[in-house]
Amino acid sequence: MIPENSFKMTAAEMAQYIDHTLLKPEAASAAFDKLCEEAVVHGFKAVCVNSAWVAYVAEKLKGSGIAICSVVGFPLGAMHSLAKAFEARQAVEDGAQELDMVLNLGAVKSGDLKAAEEDILMVRREAEHPVLLKVIIETCLLTNDEKVRACRIAQKAGADFVKTSTGFSTGGATMEDVALMRKTVGPEMGVKASGGIKNFEDAAAMIAAGATRIGAGAGVAIVGGADN
Question: CATH code at 113?
Fold first, then answer.
């Protein structure tokens, strides 16, 4: 439920929107130790990591109630769907309760919506509910019409969320894209805003636009700007 006035959220309320994220390829174990410690201290909804680190953070966060999220097919989404399916299955076996997969953007751009849908379905089959599946549509690379089509494909394929961005392409989340995605998927599906969200005001604006989850590496700074 989105608070009536997002800018009056407490730090604890804001923390429950945040996937505390570390996806840098050079990140070492000490950085993941810090990520997990911050997640516990601030009560973040989830931590989001590359699949190679899922087992590590799952062990660190055992019993904390904080969800483990793994990216899949990240950051390009251009690998074979079978590779995405394998990565998804392994991530779940290692302890992931949520998956953020990158859509086959080339299929969307080519108008091959069947291939784009099957890409999602192959991951969904390997990660059935209660695993949450979020589909990254990389809004900065799509036209508005393509954004709408991508959201509808994700919804049809049984995803639980659509997500704006990887944060590794030419742009991140915008209020306009979040609002368009929310309008397209309706009130029942989740919308995750990610990419370039650095402070409380940015996060609150995304929530006001319709986001139900925020992906950010700046989670500590974001909650630090809340009214406590």
Answer: 3.20.20.70
